[in-house]
From TrEMBL:
Tree of life domain: Bacteria
Active site: C8 (nucleophile), R14
InterPro entries the record matches: LMW_PTPase (IPR050438), Ptyr_pPase (IPR023485), Ptyr_pPase_sf (IPR036196), Tyr_phospatase_low_mol_wt (IPR017867)
Domain Phosphotyrosine protein phosphatase I: from-to ranges: 2-167
Single GO MF annotation: protein tyrosine phosphatase activity
Protein name: protein-tyrosine-phosphatase
Similarity comment: Belongs to the low molecular weight phosphotyrosine protein phosphatase family.
Transmembrane segments: none
EC number: 3.1.3.48
UniProt keyword annotations, A-Z: Hydrolase, Protein phosphatase
SUPFAM superfamilies in UniProt: Phosphotyrosine protein phosphatases I
Length: 192
């Protein structure tokens, strides 16, 4: 079974939320294993309360999450690693140079996969993306920025994952979904 790893700073906000949202979107018996970790994890901590509240309002229970540190074993077992910032991607690549063709920021991956040719294999398609990373590829940390930032982060992560999971064949096609509309019709910089 393919494996997807989300990586952020502390593993209590973005990556934790992404893991929980992905599990929710995949449902029981999902086609992918999903995990998350942080490059400077607050090991043993739960999801930030504002993010947990935003997840709860979407029917997602965050109470079982425990933050953990990303390590070589997690990186080696992941078929796809989605970081939230280019600096976290750089950290992953320093620790695991072999992950260079499977590690991207979540925004970059969603944007690239939105343009996936019909018969292309998604992970191979991503692997040839060698353009420099730019600020728009980063996903700002909502931690400590209030409930509105938490709600916005959970909404955007959901939209990005709808695109990514559909493209890799983990969920039905996102064609016509809110995620696709957001990627095509969002104001400049909203998801890019």
């Amino acid at each position: 079974m393919p494996s997807l790893l989300f990586v952020c700073q502390a593993n209590i906000a973005r990556s934790a939320s992404a893991e929980l949202i992905a599990r929710h979107l995949l449902g029981t018996g999902g086609a992918w294993q999903v995990a998350s970790a942080g490059v400077s994890a607050l090991v043993g901590h739960g999801v930030d309360s504002e993010l947990a509240g935003a997840l709860h309002r979407r029917g997602i229970d965050a109470s079982a999450h425990t933050a953990r540190q990303v390590d070589l074993a997690l990186l080696s077992s992941a078929d796809l690693v989605l970081a939230f910032e280019a600096r976290q991607r750089a950290w992953v690549l320093k620790e695991s140079p072999a992950s260079v063709r499977s590690t991207f920021t979540i925004r970059r991956a969603a944007r690239a996969l939105q343009g996936l040719p019909r018969r292309a294999e998604p992970l191979s398609f991503l692997a040839v993306d060698d353009a420099p990373y730019v600020d728009a590829d980063d996903f700002a940390d909502p931690y400590g920025h209030g409930p509105a930032a938490a709600e916005s982060a959970v909404a955007e992560i959901t939209e990005l994952l709808e695109v990514i999971l559909a493209a890799v064949g983990a969920t039905p096609s996102a064609a016509g979904s809110r995620g696709e509309r957001m990627l095509h019709g969002a104001p400049p910089g909203a998801l890019l």
